[in-house]
Amino acid sequence: QQPVQSPQAVILREGEDAVINCSSSKALYSVHWYRQKHGEAPVFLMILLKGGEQKGHEKISASFNEKKQQSSLYLTASQLSYSGTYFCGTENAGNNRKLIWGLGTSLAVNP
Amino acid sequence: DGGITQSPKYLFRKEGQNVTLSCEQNLNHDAMYWYRQDPGQGLRLIYYSQIVNDFQKGDIAEGYSVSREKKESFPLTVTSAQKNPTAFYLCASSTNPQGSIPDTQYFGPGTRLTVL
After folding, report:
1. Which residues pair with B111 in a beta bridge?
2. How many other C-beta atoms lie within 10 A of the C-beta of residue A14?
3. Using CB atoms and an 8 Å cut-off, which of residues 43-102 of chain A contact chain B?
4. Phi and psi of B16, rounded to 5°?
5. Is residue B67 classed as helix, strand or coil in its secondary structure?
6. Cβ burial, residue B112 (10 Å; 0-12/13-18/19+)
7. At residue B101, does pLDDT exceed 90?
8. What tens digit of pLDDT does each residue of A6-18 get?
9. Each residue of B3-19: pLDDT tens digit?
10. What DSSP line would sit under chain A, residue for residue?
């Protein structure tokens, strides 16, 4: 039931792009993306809804593929501040609105 | 400033002692949540509350207890029955958990509990 995130870890040079995937074995109602810096609280990035459009702000965007039961997070022209662990939380139909969290993808952006 | 506060940031306790972690929010959110995070792991739900005076067990409630006497407060007690309590504990809140659209959870800064 836990969503599977891939890859587990990514190392980028500043300015490079990355894609992080979040896949569920159950039908998705929504996907929530967060970024967490070491020792800090997760910070909300965006929600993707079933049947909704692609979301994004600045150089971070995400899509929702209902057929594949998957969401992808796109980071373009990465900045040093993008470093951290990215988590997806999935809401499945009939799960009483509880989020189930993936194990996270560690992203390191180097100069 | 609106937000969620957790105290203390670091907490040490001796094995066999109960300890209570504080979580307060002034966002006027109805729902509050407690998660546990271990190194390299995702967030695991301990307890959640969608309304005052009501709460439900999450996936790993054993050895923990909560209360929700006020809308803004949701303290978590880690009891001596919890076998492996050393972890990072995160509290979160959200506005409308029963609404028709998905609800964003906002997190506090966390409490790192170490059992000696």
Report:
1. B89
2. 12
3. 43-44, 47, 49, 87, 89, 91, 97-99, 101-102
4. 95, -5
5. coil
6. middle
7. no
8. 999 999 999 999 9
9. 999 999 999 999 889 99
10. -PPEEE-SEEEEETT--EEEEEE-SS-EEEEEEEEE-TTS--EEEEEEETT---EEETTEEEEEETTTTEEEEEE-S--GGG-EEEEEEEEETTSTT--EE---EEEEEE-
Cβ–Cβ below 8 Å for A40 and B45: no
Which of A64, A71, A97 is CA-nearest to residue B103? Answer: A97
Residue B102 DSSP symbol: -
The alpha carbon of residue A71 and the mean position of all alpha carbons in its chain are separated, in whole angstroms, by 7
Measured from the Cβ of residue B10, the count of other Cβ atoms closer than 10 Å reads 9
- What are the φ and ψ backbone dihedral angles of A26, each rounded to 5 degrees? -115, 160
Best A47, A98, A103, A105 member to test B by mutation, with max B CBs in 10 Å, is A98
Which two three-digit tokens encode residue A16? 């490079």
Residue A82 phi/psi, 5-degree rounding, is -75, -15
Count of residues in chain A: 111
Q: Do A33 and A64 contact (CB within 8 A), yes or no?
A: no
